[in-house]
Amino acid sequence: MAVSYKDLGLVNTKELFKKAVDGGYAIPAYNFNNMEQMQAILQACVETKSPVILQVSSGARNYANATLLRNMAKGAVEYVKELGCEIPIVLHLDHGDTFELCKDCIDNGFSSVMIDGSHHSYEENVALTKKVVEYAHAHGVTVEGELGVLAGVEDDVVAEHSTYTKPEEVEDFVKKTGVDSLAISIGTSHGANKFTPAQCTVNEDGVLIPPMLRFDILEEIEKRIPGFPIVLHGSSSVPQEYVKMINELGGKMKDAVGIPEEWLRRAAKSAVCKINIDSDGRLAMTAAVRKVLTEKPGEFDPRKYLGPAREELKKLYMHKNIEVLGSANQA
Ligand SMILES: O=C(CO)COP(=O)(O)O
Ligand SMILES: O=C[C@H](O)COP(=O)(O)O
Ligand SMILES: [Zn+2]
Ligand SMILES: [Zn+2]
């Protein structure tokens, strides 16, 4: 039997995006795979009074099990009430690659899905996205499409080089497909190794500064589809304190560079109304777990290292909501 997101107390992205575009901030889209990540996200968003998009990749569904994830999302709505603030919660499929996967999520309580047809030809992308939109809209679910390909690892898909979004395609794409939001490629990419040191310049403090995002492309897109909700994937900043911690505590992360928070702040003020962050959370948890296991080698209770990891993650998300995305106090 199909389960509607409405029965779970979740919301789609429609109103949230409208307010975010008008208000000059972005809604956080944080990926989760397990209970501690979900708790950290919800606690951080309740404490900062921020709306939130709980983001699930197909990898996460395989890892955690789709039924369990859905029931966790149902629990999320009750949990935030218990915490004392009923923030709007979206359950979103990240990087859906087939109609069947999107349909399965829509039939199982997701309030929003992404169909990433960006790896197909333009015509195929339009046809696939339109098909998902028709099914989703019949169920009140909102849809994110994508134009342009991000460099780095996208789920199972590896894009060696990014292809920037062509502004001259966006109007036609939005009109033909009926999507509710559009992910674009302006120089961000997935993972912790977004740029090689050779691509970066070094500032006076010895910090690697990556090549500037193509804000000119974003501006051109905004001119062509004014006020239309834009999504930025691959937006982790790869905090160097976490990379350093991981490496000092026995890890081996080489050349990890992300998107400066200043640039994300600038993007959030534009039509960019959803910013995807996954890798930074992975770094925060890994650094915290390594710290506990190094300092207390006799520790073997998972709560003793996953608990501090959850705390570190919550701190990171609160920082993002308040200092970077501007979503704090917008719930
Ligand atoms: O775009 C993302 C999820 O869709 C996450 O990007 P990061 O790898 O930069 O966190
Ligand atoms: O864009 C990809 C997200 O970071 C999810 O990653 P994943 O497929 O490893 O769960
Ligand atoms: Zn893509
Ligand atoms: Zn992504």
Automatic annotation (TrEMBL):
Catalytic reactions of this protein: beta-D-fructose 1,6-bisphosphate = D-glyceraldehyde 3-phosphate + dihydroxyacetone phosphate
Role according to the record: Catalyzes the aldol condensation of dihydroxyacetone phosphate (DHAP or glycerone-phosphate) with glyceraldehyde 3-phosphate (G3P) to form fructose 1,6-bisphosphate (FBP) in gluconeogenesis and the reverse reaction in glycolysis.
Source organism per UniProt: Gaoshiqia sediminis
CDD domains xref list: TBP_aldolase_IIB
Transmembrane domains' residue ranges: none
Superkingdom: Bacteria
UniProt EC number: 4.1.2.13
PANTHER family: D-TAGATOSE-1,6-BISPHOSPHATE ALDOLASE, D-TAGATOSE-1,6-BISPHOSPHATE ALDOLASE SUBUNIT GATY-RELATED
Any one GO biological process: fructose 1,6-bisphosphate metabolic process
Gene3D superfamilies the UniProt entry points to: Aldolase class I
Positions annotated as active site in the UniProt record: D94
Details of cofactor binding: Binds 2 Zn(2+) ions per subunit. One is catalytic and the other provides a structural contribution.
Family to which this protein belongs: Belongs to the class II fructose-bisphosphate aldolase family.
Pathway listed: Carbohydrate degradation; glycolysis; D-glyceraldehyde 3-phosphate and glycerone phosphate from D-glucose: step 4/4
Cofactors that this protein relies on: Zn(2+)
Residues bound to Zn(2+) 2: D116, E146
NCBIfam families xrefs: cbbA (TIGR00167), fruc_bis_ald (TIGR01859), PRK07084.1 (NF005481)
Ligand binding (Zn(2+) 1): H95, H190, H233
UniProt lineage: Bacteria, Pseudomonadati, Bacteroidota, Bacteroidia, Marinilabiliales
Pfam families per UniProt: F_bP_aldolase (PF01116)
This protein's name: fructose-bisphosphate aldolase
Record GO terms (molecular function): fructose-bisphosphate aldolase activity; zinc ion binding
EC class (word): lyase
This protein's UniProt keywords: Glycolysis, Lyase, Metal-binding, Zinc
